[in-house]
Write a structure and sequence with these properties.
The structure is a homodimer of 199-residue chains. Chain A is α+β, with helices and mostly antiparallel strands. In chain A, 16% of the residues lie in helices and 33% in strands. Chains A and B meet through strand 5 and strand 8 of A and strand 5 and strand 8 of B.
C-alpha cells in the first residue's frame, strides 16, 4: 500500500509517478492524505501527474486549500465499514481544513466536511450551515483500492479529530516524539488502512 | 516582558523563578500561553512555583489539559482594547483545547472558551452548549501586567483561530519555516503583547 501525505509531487520523478500509477492499476492500494503539500495544495500539484487518473477525486487547476477558522464538522454521508459504529452522528468531531476536491462520478463519498459560521449577533450563538465538501472518498483504480482523505492526520488541519474519543491512547515510535491521541481517531484511521489493505 | 509558552517549569531553577516573580512585581509584564507544558498541563507544573502568585488564574492541583474534539468556540466576555473591533461576535473562531483554570477574584476575564457538542441524531445538526472556561484573563501583579491565555498560539490547541480573518499573512523568521496565518489571529496576539508592554 502507498500512503502519500504532504509529500509534494515534485519530490517524485515523472518515471516514479508513472511506475506508481501502473502499480496501483495492478492492485497496489493508494491513500492520499490532505495537506498543504497534497492534492493541489500549495505545492502538492498532483493534478498534473499520472496519479490524477488513479485518485478518486477531481482536482482544481490551482491552490485548493481551505483553512477554516469557524466550526467545520465531519459529517456522515454513506454507510461504510470504515466508519461503522463510530460516533459521527452523536458527537461529530471538527477539523481545521482540507483540500477542496470533487468526487469522481463513480466514487463513493463516505464523509463530508461541512463548514458552519458561529455568530452571537442575536444571543444565543447561531450556527449557520455553509458549504459541504468531500472528506473521505473511496474508489477503485484498475485492481487497486484508492482513498482520498482531504483533511490531515496531523495538526493543524486534523483539528479536534485527533482528540476524538473518550479514551486516550499513547504511543511512542522509535526516534519520534511521544503522542497522545483519542481512541476514535485511532480506530478511524486504522479501519481506513485496513480497508485499503484488504483484497 | 516575559512570555512563557509550553516551557515546563522544571526548565527553570527555583532561584530563577523567584527572581522572575520579583521582577514581575516590580513592573515586568508576564504572558503565559497555554499548552501541555504550561500552567499545570502534562509537565507545566507552574502551580508549585512562585509564578502561581503572579498569574491571574488559580490552577488545579493536577493535569488541567482539555483536548476538545467537538466545536469549542472563543466567546467574548468583557469589553477590552485587546479585542475591540475583532469579529468575535459575528464570526467566532474555534480552538482545539486549553488548560482549565479559574480566574482569580479580582482578575478580568475577557474571553471564554465554550464547548459545544454537535449531533445529528435528529436532523439537522444540533449544537448543544456545554461548559465555559476562562480563555483570556488579565490582571496586575504588583506593578506588572499579567496575562493568561489558556489555549495556544500554535497547533494543535490554537485550532481554527490561527486561520481567523479574511486576509492571509505570510511571514518567514530567520532559521524557521515560513508561516501563513489569518490577519485577525495576528491582530489579536499583537494587541495582547502591546497591552502587556504598555506602562
Amino acid at each position: 500500500m502507498l500512503i502519500i501525505s504532504d509529500y509534494p509531487s515534485k519530490n517524485f520523478t515523472e518515471k516514479q509517478l508513472l511506475y506508481l500509477s501502473e502499480r496501483i492499476k495492478g492492485g497496489l492500494g493508494l491513500v492520499m492524505i490532505g495537506g498543504w503539500g497534497s492534492f493541489v495544495g500549495l505545492d502538492g500539484n498532483y493534478h498534473k501527474t499520472p496519479l490524477a487518473d488513479c485518485l478518486p477525486v477531481l482536482m482544481q487547476p490551482s491552490d485548493d486549500r481551505m483553512n477554516i477558522s469557524s466550526p467545520c464538522l465531519v459529517s456522515y454521508d454513506t454507510h461504510h465499514q470504515i466508519i461503522e459504529g463510530l460516533p459521527f452522528e452523536t458527537n461529530a468531531p471538527v477539523i481545521g481544513g482540507f483540500n477542496a476536491v470533487q468526487a469522481k462520478p463513480r466514487a463513493k463519498i463516505v464523509l463530508n466536511a461541512t463548514v458552519y459560521k458561529a455568530s452571537k449577533v442575536n444571543h444565543p450563538v447561531e450556527f449557520k450551515i455553509g458549504k459541504s465538501y468531500p472528506l473521505l472518498v473511496l474508489d477503485h483504480c484498475g485492481l487497486g483500492k484508492v482513498v482520498a482523505f482531504t483533511s490531515d492526520v496531523a495538526p493543524h488541519w486534523v483539528g479536534g479529530l485527533v482528540d476524538w474519543g473518550d479514551e486516550r491512547i499513547s504511543a511512542h515510535a522509535l526516534g519520534a516524539n511521544p503522542v497522545e491521541v483519542g481512541c476514535d481517531y485511532v480506530e478511524f484511521f486504522t479501519r481506513m488502512i485496513q480497508w485499503v489493505s484488504e483484497n
